[in-house]
Each structure stands twice: as C-alpha cells, then as structure tokens.
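Chain A, query sequence.
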Amino acid sequence: GDAIINGEIDASGYDANAADGLTFRPDVVVLGAEGACGGGRGGDASSTLDYSTQLGDDGMGPFGSAFGGGSGGEGGYQQDRSPAAIGGGAVLIGAEFLVAGGGGGGGFALTRTDAVFWDEWPSSSLPSTYDNSGPDLRGDRHTIFDTTIDPDTYFLGAEDGMRGSSVGANQIDTGMFPQAVRGYLDNGQDLGALDTIIFDPAQTGGSINDDEVYGLAVSGPDGGRGGASVFSSIDPEFGTANDFYGERFFWDGTGASPVTVTGELLAPYAGSGGGGSGDLQTLIRYIDDGTGFQPLPLSGHYPDSAFPHGNTQRYFRGAGGGGGGGQIQIHVIGHIVLGSSAVLKVNGGNGAGGDSTSGGSLDGSTTQVSGSGGGSGGHLILSSASGLNLSEINVGTALNPGNPNTFFDNTIPNYVMQAIGGRRGWSASKLAANFPVSENAPNNYDGNGSFHAGRGGAGASGVIQIHIPDPVTDIAYHGDVDAAFKQYVTLENLDNPVVSDRQDQVLALYAMPVPFTLMPFFSPKSQVQSVWIDTGLANLRQPSNGSGIFPDYGATGDLNFAGIDALGYVESDVATATVIQLTPVTGGAASDFTIDASGFSVTIDLTSLIIADSWKFNPKLLIGCDFTTADAAHEIVSADLASNGDLVLATLVADGEIIDDGSAFVIYNKFFGVSSGDIKDKLPPSSSVRIQFQGADGVSQEGLEPDAATLTSWTGENGTTFDDLDGKRFIRYRVSFDIDALSQGGFNGLSRPALGYIKIPYAW
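Chain A, predicted structure.
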C-alpha cells in the first residue's frame, strides 16, 4: 500500500535545559538532554559532585555507543573580585572575565553544518531574553563570508565549542587587574586569543587568524571538540558523495553511463549528543603583606583544598548537551505521499547556556558561563518501490531549464524533510555585538555567534535518503514545476539518466540537509547493464565492393536478433504465459538422432536433413538454442560437427534427461533464456523483460575505450534499431525487469523473471 503523511513525524533529539536558577550548587548535576529513536544523549555538565568539574561530559553516540558525541568543554577558575588583604576587595569582576569552554557539537555527516545557516528556529526553542530565529552566522558582522571565504565549505560537520574568555591575558600575574580565565587542566591562560569587551569579533579582512579567534590548544579553558563522524574524511574518490547507506547511480552528465556508488554506512544510523560545557569557579585572591602589598598570583589559590568552603566564593555550572536526532525509516511497496502539511524531522537537540554570573532585570540570564553543544541530526530513510509524491508541496516556479544560473531564481524552499543539527549553546549573551534593530531579537542580545567565546558547537547535520526506482518517472512534483524539474535533471532529454548534482539541487528545495537519491531497497523494477564489449578492429578493413558497413548487427535471416518487439520487450503468449518460440533451425524423425547413454547428449545424422550452412559449418551458433523432443525443450550447451558429418550436441543438465519415446525432434533458434520461478520459458502477463542494445565507436584505433560522443540511443528508444548500431566497434546491452508490468500493485508475492543467458549476433 501507500504511505500518506499529512502531519508531523518528529524523532528529533531533545533540547538541552536552560539554567535551573540554582546558585552555588556544585553538588547538583546538570543533565544532558535525551536523544530520540536511537539518537545519543547529550553530555552532562558539573558531574563531579565533591569537587570542581574539570570537563563537561562527552555526548553519547547513537544506540548508546561512545562514538560520535561532542566532547565536553573545559572548566576554569578566576578571581572573584579585586585583591585584598582580608576577604577580598569590594569590586566584583565583570562577565567578560567569567567564560569557560563550550561543549562540542554531536557528530554525524561531514557536509555543511546546516544549523549555522538555519533561520527558522521556532520561538518555543528560543531563550526568553536573547537571540532571534537565526541564522547564527552573522552576515552583518562577518562580511568575510560574503567575499573571500565560502561559508558552505568553512562550516562542515560537527563544530567545536569555543574556548573560554581571554580578556586580561596580557596582564601580569601579580598585578591588581583580573587576568584571563585559567583552565582547570593546564592551570594557564590562553595567550593566543584576543578578546575584547565585545565578543564575536568581526571578520572582515582577507583571512581569519585562527590563533586569535580560536586560541591556542591546551591553553586556558578549551572548547570541546566536535564529535567524530562515522564517515571517512579522506575519501579520495567520492569525498562526501558516498556518505549514505545503500547504493546510488551517479552520473555527472558527461560520462558514457552512470556508475554505481556504494555508501560507506553498513546499516542505518542516528545522531549523536552534544558535549556538556565547562564550569567556572571564582576564588578570593589575597595580598601578601610580607612582600609589600603585592597580590599573590591567582594560580597560587587553586586548587581550593577546602572546596567548596575555602577560597571558593562562587561556582557556576555549565549546560548539558543537546540530544542526538533519531532514526526514521519508511518502507512501502506503494507510493510515499507527503501532503501539504507533512513534515518529517530527525533534527538534533539544541545546546543551552549555563548558569549566569550576574543577575538583575537588565542582565537576567544573559551572562551565561558557557554554552553546550547541539546534538547532531539523525537518519531519515524513505524507500518506495513505486515513487515519491511531492505534488502538494509548493516550492514556487522554475525558470528555463536550459539556463542553470537562473533556473531556481523563482523557487521557494519548503523543508518538509529535516535532519538539521542542534543549535549552538549560548554564553555571555550580554557581551555579543547587538543585532540590528530590524532583527527584533529580545534585548538585541545574541551569544552564540561564530567566534563568540564560550559558545557551544553546532551539531553536525544528519543524513536524508530517498530510495525510488526512477527519479524522472517516479517523483511527482507540484504542477508548477514538475515538467521543468524533470527537464532540468536530464539536461532537457528525458531519455538521459538524471544528472546527480542537478537531482540534488532540486530535492534540496524540499529537504535540509541536501538528500541523496538512491536505488530502492526493493522495487518491481530492476535493471542489469553489461560492460562494453569490444568487437575488435576488423571494422578498419571494410570491403571495397560496397557491402557493409560492418560489424553488421542488423543482419537478416537466422542471425538477426529475434524474440523481442520494436521496443525491446520479450514477446510472449499471454494465454500460455510463455516466451514465443522462434523459427526452427532444423528438424527430423526419431531415426535421425541417437541419445547418448548419459541422457544429456545426442548425435544427429544430417544426411537427409535440411539445415543452413551457417549452422552446419558454425555449430557453435547452436549454443543456447533448444533441442526439442517428447514435448520437452533442452538448452544446447555444446555443439560440434564430427568428422563423419554428424552433429553432436550436449544439453543442460537442469533441463532434465532427453527422453526417447519415438518422437521427432526440432532445434529452435534462440538468443536468450528467460524463466520465472525456475520454470523454463515462463513469462506471465504481470511481468515484462526488456532487452536493449547501444553502440559506440572507439576513442581511437589504439584506444580500448568507447567514445562517449558517438553513443547511439538504446534500441527501442527514439526509433533506434539494430541497423543504427552497424559499424560500431563497441556494443553493450541492458536488461530491464518489471514484475508489475500491469501496474496493479501487490507485486511482492509474484514470481520474478530471470535471464539465464544472452547471445548477441553480428556479421562481417
């Protein structure tokens, strides 16, 4: 039957929880969000209950595995206020000094990090006092992505969390002024990064200075790494073009034929959780009266041996990571129909901001100590043996398919299939560059910009796969674009295979990330195609008497390929559900042949029989023909002319022993062997078998490859016959099977036709 979807199916990972409002509670774990339908759980924050938590926990991979989750961000410590001899000074340090490492995003796909570009984050998922619906890549601020750097290739896979604040990194260790946050693991500051009072520094030049933006590894509180991908990042042949589960026909529009690409995944997958973000601890910093009122180095106050009741003044917990998107599979024999209100989601859960370091009506929750990583998108698989119906999904109109530069100008994406990674968690939103007034964000605050200290990493995108028999005939688009889309993907020739990149462009209007169009897992239709067969260089010596041209594939008489109609379909008798019998080669009485003792060989006396010389003196041509007697046909597998002129044949054991009941015999011409359900020559009306041929010249006399520029159409298409192949050095065939030739559905219980062999005759 069909699968008709008119509502929402959502297996997205859960969003990480916002800060719970508790203060100074290092003994309370901040839980990561759950994944959905196989998606990995987000990493916890502040999970060490009796001491300061050094790192946020890593997110989990799919199905409870440890692989693929985002890494936790590193925590850090800072002085609480200005130094003093007893109890500390009165001036608390600002929020710009109180930012720890963000958690990494969950890993899955290595393609574009779509969460960075997504501009439809629902209001229900937005923090109440900051940010907007996206995108989180601030085009108004980072103009380098308008000119110099392609953002689609810069933001790939799971994002790392950003390192903690480096404000004050240039201050001397014994000075009065606060320094940059020190990381728990290395007890040091990040001296490479350059933070100012405004976070997310604008990138407008010719390049991005990684040290200044991302800081130095293992210095200060580092951000967690983005989760590892299940896919290879160094595939030299296909890159990310085989990052799926199953198989795909891939054609670039120029090669002789599509190639079969096998995906890297061995089984359906799911998303991974984001990493928890780092905690931050503030300490009273004392002045050493014995050295002339010089403040002691901050590093001398950590660790706090009496934690949490010694020098520790405040303790801020990070945020738990977002959950990984789940796995949805829809497999139907009929059509998959997506109605006008259908949405399928396996998105990653969003990251969140940790505890805020200050309160009040102005700041509210906008001084988050760090942001957690978003979960990655999940795995969405739609597989139909009949087709995908998108006719109710309006995507605008398409322009001239002959002009790819403007073809999509009037289209409007409608993302009814989503596997987007979770959003970056927020940190120190108060310190972000304000949005333009037109952005309408609460308080104009942000906090998860691309280079904002302490923000979490976006989750990697998931994978969307659409499995159908034929992308041209088996996808129905909205009436405003259907014809144009199909012209566009076939280079304006519907007999072409689809150009894979163009097919991706079209379906990208319906899905984010860009989906893969793959072979169905099951279908009433299947096809096999041979390699090119090189007939050799004899065509260089064409006869001078005007005959030819050779090789001659359309020869008349016994050597003319027969048994198919003008379109290439195998001819059959509907009443008996059998393949039609071709003309006899020869025949005779029972006295003209002798059956060998084995029962699988006969010797025929040709003395009184009528048989053409082409068969008599080229007996190998009889291989594949049927020797018929006693109402049973036996496939000939060996044929030789004995020295006495007798014809000696061996037959296929699977066809059974040859019975001697006194019947006459007939040898029938035959070019292929079709069977259904192991019954020889059976072809029910519900099934069809189509045999087609294609020819090509060689690239050169010395070359061993066909010239793609000289390809003929397939026989049976565009009026092409065997005569159109004459003179072509290379030939190949393809065979198409359809067990639902009458389009009645319910074909899963029908017998399947098979092709046992094929002979291609050609003459010189």
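The longest strand covers residues 632-641. The chain has a mean pLDDT of 92.
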